[in-house]
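[job 4417] fold queue: 2 targets
>>> target A
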Amino acid sequence: MNCSTKNLNANYYSSVDEIPSKVWSSLNVNENVYFKKSFLKSVEENHQKLSFFYVVLLDNNGNPKCFGSIQIIDFFFETVKNDLESFAKKVKEFGQKLHLFPKKKPFKLLICGNTFVSGEHGILIANGFDKKQIIKELAKAILNYVNSNDKYHIDAFLLKDFINESISITNELKDFNYHPFSVEPNMVLHLDKSWNTFDDYLQALKTKFRVKAKKALKLSKSLSVKDVTKDSISQQLSDMEQLYKKVAKNASFNLSDFNLNTYKEFMYQLDNNYIIKTYYLEDKMVGFMSGVINNDSLDAHFVGIDYSLNRELAIYQRMLYDYIKIAIDNNLKTLNFGRTASEIKSSVGAEPQDLTMYLRHKKSITNKIIKLFLMRVQPTPFRQNLPFKK
């Protein structure tokens, strides 16, 4: 679908397969794995409950200047399980009395970003363009498409996960009645150039944290760790799904559940750049971890844990150290641990990277109520550990 109005020229696609090859080449999508056609297609094909569409903004010569990845999910206020749960319930009840929120239908949420990954993985802008202008054009293009398409009955719009360096650009969204709010930070470990081995990393730690690491490695010594391959993933997927559900159930907030069948596609499409390890106690799987190498970074993805054995075997801590070992062995610069469990991640050296989201409701009155709600949304405070020697 093409939409050309004053100061706006945009193309829309309901599947990545519809997007012309010129778009991928013009925007250099191969520089970021999350914008590769193969990655987007894997997510799209394995999440039938989600709706997808993609926006490509064009310059005056018809050349692509911006790509936006959109997912539409059914959001339920009941999925808020942290200290905002009671407030979310009140907002929902109040909104339903005023007929602002659907009573029996799910809350339709449009997300520009990646539903399953933390970070700026929803908008790609070509070099040489005014990013402030582009972000406003993209907001307008998304709204135009939704308003002109009877297929979508969107309740709210969410543009997600912008780092502090982008805020001066993304604050342009306020002109479109989007409200910014802070979310749990992405925990990032910056790898020192002198770390050639995992032992080098251990030696860089203060005594207290080195003792803690060695204790975790000792407790997890009875675990056997297997590298999941294209040939072995099918046999292990069922156990992985059970462990993932335990983690997802424990999470304070989930936008949508991830379909682990996507891993099969990732392993074929991304080859050695997608990493999965499984952890066994004798013949029983008690954990798994996954991650993707994206340029000079390792991004931790989903994990699964048998919580009944986690403390005894230090399963999660062992995973964190294994992520670090992988990053060092691949000579990478950063390790993005993602959100959640910030304190334990800081104990292995990760530091918080603030992230901001922008939300707006399609109805102006509800949008004002949402603004009050978002003013109370704050990242969960945690103790930031400083494990490295000066």
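>>> target B
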Amino acid sequence: MEAHGIGGQADLPISLELAVSGAVAALVVSFTVLVVAWRRPRYDGQPVTGRLVWPPLDAFVSSVAFRVGARVVGLLLAAYTVAVAVAGQDNLTNPFFGIFYVWWWVGLVFASALLGPVWRAISPVRTLNAGIAHLAGSDPDAGLVPYPERLGYWPAALGLFAFVWLELAYEYPTELGSVRFWCAVYVGAMLVGGAVFGNRFYERADPFEVYSSLIAKLSPWARDEEERLVLRSPLANLATIPPLPGLVAVVAVLFGSTAFDSFRESTFWVKFYQGSSIDKVYLDNVALLCFVLLAGLLFSGGSALTPPGAEVSRRDLPRHYAHSIVPIILGYIVAHYLTLFIDVGTQTLARASDPFGKGWDILGTAAVEPSYWFSYHPQTLATIKVLAVVVGHVVAAVAAHDRALALLPRKDQVTGQLPLLAVMVTFTAGGLMLLFSA
């Protein structure tokens, strides 16, 4: 795929040092204000409420016709993707690569942040599992056996790592056969898992549904206790993420892989592997794993160093704070992949109109070309980068602070948060340096 770089240090309207200093200062000031003005938990453990949306909108979104329509859209998109994967040309002009790496991986994040859990609504594997269960006369929600709660999100974490490994560390990420094989394994695993464990399997183990659902917690949409569509603060939504086993692993994979994607384009890494006798693929594999482990260990260490309360053990603290990393992940996705999504996504739309390279224009988009607007406005791009990272970390600090007030003993509610604050400052400074070193 095309490089993910979206402008380097020279594009900043201010120096990198000033950008990092300002971002860290914003985080520290935010924490100080929170300590003074936010002394009781507002979301954690509180009743889930929200403002009811316009009743006709709720009725439309809740209707059977809307749900069926979403499933049909998902199946049509999946059928089209299978067609171009099987019968398309084995080169980069095949829209399959753009659909897989850009529309699915990056576009799903933006769609979920705006609209809610999109993949849950359109997931073709959920639809196929429901159809198979209907033919067999069984309940797709129940499956054959209950999903083991001790597994939590661990299968999703492994699936997400498998995807980022294919994209960032595998030797042939744009070899048609390899990507087709990955998709076949994914579909097979999802159908078998759904048949055995029911729909709970998709909530916990489908890497794309878990990713989409976590990001969707930053959208303003939610359902209240009576299943009515409401508008709600994203912070209130974030607080409803269940602290299940494997949640830290999920956020570590997402955050660590994005950081590695920036690092592998840096001048330091390029010079290092060019001057090394070790194969680049091996180095990329080791570095990707190290970035993911480092992200998980730093966060787990900072969380575990906060004093445990009466209800949560020190061992379980990291997963109770892990929801606060989701805004940081979204911030880095915006900062790192925005131009990739706009430019390569537009190219994919043009190529999708001629899926088999026969000169067709079935969608009427064959002549569409990316404008590369950000290439001509690097200062605007740099500003968006910094703002996305800073806003993501500030929102994360608010979410962590609110959870800390609910978990920490009263005497430790200020000093007890300092280890986690130190980790977030490290993420802020390190993330900005990586983004602008590419």
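[job 4417] complete. Note on B: The two ends are 16 Å apart (CA to CA).
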